[in-house]
Design brief:
Elements: H1 3-8, E1 10-13, E2 16-24, E3 30-36, E4 66-72, E5 80-88, E6 93-97, H2 108-117, E7 130-131, E8 138-139, E9 141-148, E10 154-162, E11 165-169, E12 182-185, E13 190-193, E14 200-201, H3 203-206, H4 209-218, H5 254-258, H6 268-272, H7 276-289, H8 316-322, H9 334-349
Antiparallel strand pairs: 1-2, 1-4, 2-3, 3-6, 4-5, 5-6, 7-8, 9-10, 9-12, 10-11, 11-14, 12-13
The structure holds zinc ion (3 copies).
Length: 359
């Protein structure tokens, strides 16, 4: 993503900022919501005339959870109303969405117009933490990151993750008015929300799980063709699976075996593949069998269940040493893997007696 596209996702929220993300509204439609810092709502004027966070009981009125003149484009006075879908004052994160379309119908169009004018950011996990074998504590995750300055430049720095929080270096990049801005990683995905210089919430750890699912699920577009979830891939897409063998459709041999085509080395079919006619026959077979639509199966840690953990790799030899046989084809997040390593190494050093007690 270019810097300009990244900036288009950022907007004004009260005296601070926020950024737009796409989320699944239902099985057929997406909608746009805004992630911001909870403290951007602390003094904001609600539609019932009071200020601050919505009252904490679920039978509150729509006007008690909706804010007047809260959102707007960067560098303009906010005029658009929005409702609070989620707020956590402890980690300092909030999510805003469209005002209620029954009670505040006249405010809905402004919200949707503003959202249409914006870009969106994907959200993803921050750099993974590990475990220190010797010191027996978590080691911070580190990675490149950027934040949007008040004058609109993406400033490059580093984040350090300690459990659910990020600190950003250099801290002097953070100034008043940037609160609620996204902290993005090197790929342009949002990993954190600007809150304070030292402590900023990791998005996927701080939002409710259903929000994380609906936001990450809305990014469900095939990375090789325009197919959305549930749709068929374009012909030749390298993600499509073969309905006969389950492997990658563009590279498996089923088209030859199903059409009874011999492929001795050096022949035309070996070099050029199927003829146009054979291709049509093959497509008919595929359609009769039923093509495999694009469905996004998330990566998940097999131990703690975390969605889309940051990927890491180890040698086959090490993997087999620490991961038991039935789990080796699965995925583990870095903290879980390091924890398993510690347990197994401790078990070895203390003999057959199990874990050594510390403290
Ligand atoms: Zn595709
Ligand atoms: Zn196949
Ligand atoms: Zn895990």
């Amino acid at each position: 993503m270019t810097d300009e596209l990244l900036t288009r996702a950022v907007l004004k929220v009260g005296n601070g900022r926020g950024f737009a993300v796409e989320r699944q509204k239902n099985h057929f439609r997406n909608e746009r919501v805004v992630i911001t810092a909870a403290h951007c709502l602390a003094d904001a004027l609600r539609a019932d005339g009071d200020c601050g966070l919505p009252p904490c009981h679920p039978s509150r009125y729509v006007r008690e959870e909706t804010y007047k003149d809260l959102l707007g484009p960067l560098r303009r006075k906010p005029t658009v109303w929005a409702t609070c879908l989620y707020v956590d004052p402890i980690t300092d994160i909030a999510v805003l969405g469209q005002p209620d379309d029954m009670v505040l119908a006249e405010k809905v169009e402004d919200y949707n117009c503003l959202m249409k004018s914006l870009g969106t950011l994907p959200i993803t996990d921050a750099p993974a933490q590990g475990w220190d074998h010797v010191m027996e504590h978590k080691t911070p995750g580190k990675g490149d990151a950027r934040v949007l300055s008040l004058c609109g430049h993406w400033l490059r720095g580093q984040v350090v993750r300690s459990s659910n929080n990020l600190s950003f270096e250099p801290g002097r990049f953070f100034v008043g008015g940037m609160s609620g801005s996204p902290i993005i990683n090197a790929n342009g995905a949002a990993i954190g929300v600007c809150s304070t210089i030292e402590i900023n919430p990791v998005i996927v750890d701080s939002l409710a799980a259903h929000l994380v699912r609906s936001i990450q699920g809305a990014g469900g577009k095939c990375h090789d063709c325009p197919a959305l979830e549930g749709e068929y891939h374009e012909p030749g897409c390298d993600v499509e699976r073969c309905p006969f063998c389950g492997d990658q459709l563009i590279s498996c041999d089923c088209c030859y075996t199903m059409l009874n085509i011999d492929r001795p080395p050096g022949t035309r079919v070996c070099e050029f593949g199927l003829t146009r006619k054979q291709q049509m026959q093959w497509e008919r077979l595929l359609n009769d069998k039923g093509r495999v639509p694009f469905i996004l199966y998330p990566n998940m840690c097999a131990k703690c269940g975390k969605l889309w953990p940051e990927m890491f790799s180890v040698s086959d030899q090490e993997w087999e040493q620490y991961v038991e046989k039935g789990q080796r084809d699965k995925l583990l997040c870095k903290p879980c893997y390091d924890q398993i390593k510690i347990w197994i190494d401790e078990g070895l050093s203390s003999g057959a007696g199990g874990r050594r007690l510390t403290g």
